[in-house]
Amino acid sequence: MAKKARAQSAPVKEWLAANECARRIGITVRALRVYEQRGLIRPRRTEKGWRLYGADEIARLHEVLALKRLGLSLASIVVLLQGKAIDLERTLTLQSAALSEQRARAERGLALVEAARATLAAGRTLSIEDLIKLAKEANMPELTQDSVARRRYEQARPRTPIKIDPSLLERYVGHYRLPSDTIIAIERRGDSLFAQLTGQPALELFAEAEGEFFLKAVPAQIGFAASRDAAAPSLTLSQGGFDMVAPRVDASEAAALEAALATRIRNRTPQPGSAAVLHAIIADQQEGRTGEERMSPELAIVVGEQFPMLQEELAAKGDLRQLVFKGVGSDAADVYEAQFANGKLDCGIFLADDGKAHMLWLTPSL
């Protein structure tokens, strides 16, 4: 007797309502709406208009959140993912590089702690050197003026170039996106690497270890994330006391971003709200406040260091009469002429997606 074939039912697809999706992932419903408005996710709609999120939508959310944690702005993520299929392998590779670095630091810290405990258990005391290592390695770094000053000192120390296997250089070649929506292009010329930031000349990189390079022209270093003989998934630019992670992007995405900046420059298109934020920061500083709540944490540190000089300069200029937009710089900053009762200043400002200033500079107006 022939056996009847059993029909196998397809697995039931699970859907989550917006509030349940947000709660389980750990974000707000408002964030889901923002991602939808930006075209990053497209939830299914019920007949009554309720939004539903399935596996595809949550996979895309994972990509978005992972890229945000790596330092990309929301505008950058939109350009990076627009029209692209979900690629969890690419995102997981980036996450793996970042988490591996964190794990290595944690393992070093744990090893120091256990060694210190063993020393104390043996009835011996910890030396000053032991205590310094514990303070430096076992604690996660905080973004303070002191920590930034230490990093700046470390970044400015003399470095000695070494020779590395030229075959390793190809894995570093490519385009990488900084949080400020600018591109670092890494190019190989013979047995040397060159780095070029959008709107700036190319500078030669000198190796100090495998995957670790420095520049002689400026006190800065570039480190590439390791990736098992494949193309490096990201780089870290260390400069000015800060570390900025830049994920790899393909050449077409880099070209699109640079074209968008070129269009802003050509059409003289300021970022929405940049004049209002600049005006508020100037008003804050003239009244004795740094205005740090309007800035990224990194910018707030730099402005805090320069605050006495800035306040003195702005106080001498008197009341701010108006801000005149002059154009967009090659660094993507909106450039304004600030006209005061007693003089003028040229100011540059770039806003992140949260509306806070990521870049700010002031110079005498010519």
| Share of helix, binned | 40-55%
Across the major sheet, the strand order is: 4-5-6-7-8-9-10-11
Per the principal axes of the C-alpha atoms, what is the gross shape?
Answer: globular
- The CATH topology of the largest domain comes to Lipocalin
Can you identify the CATH class of the largest domain?
A: Mainly Beta
Low-confidence stretches: 1-7
**What fraction strand?**
15-25%
Structural class: alpha+beta
Number of individual domains: 3
Count of DSSP H/I helices: 10
Strand runs, count:
15
**Terminal CA distance:** 97 Å
The SSE string, one letter per element, is EHHEEHHHHHEEEEEEEEHHHEEEE
| Biggest sheet features | 8 strands, antiparallel, barrel
- Examine the secondary-structure arrangement and name the CATH architecture of the largest domain: Beta Barrel
What is the radius of gyration computed over CA atoms, rounded to a whole number of angstroms? Answer: 25 Å
Mean pLDDT: 84
InterPro entries: DNA-bd_dom_put_sf, MerR-type_HTH_dom, MerR_fam, Peptidase_S12_Pab87-rel_C
Protein name: MerR family transcriptional regulator
Pfam families: DUF3471 (PF11954), MerR_1 (PF13411)
Organism: Bosea rubneri
List keywords for this structure.
366 residues; alpha+beta; Multidrug-efflux Transporter Regulator, Chain: A, Domain 2; Lipocalin; Nuclear Transport Factor 2, Chain: A; 3 domains; eight-stranded antiparallel barrel; four-stranded antiparallel sheet; DNA-binding; transcription regulation; repressor; transcription
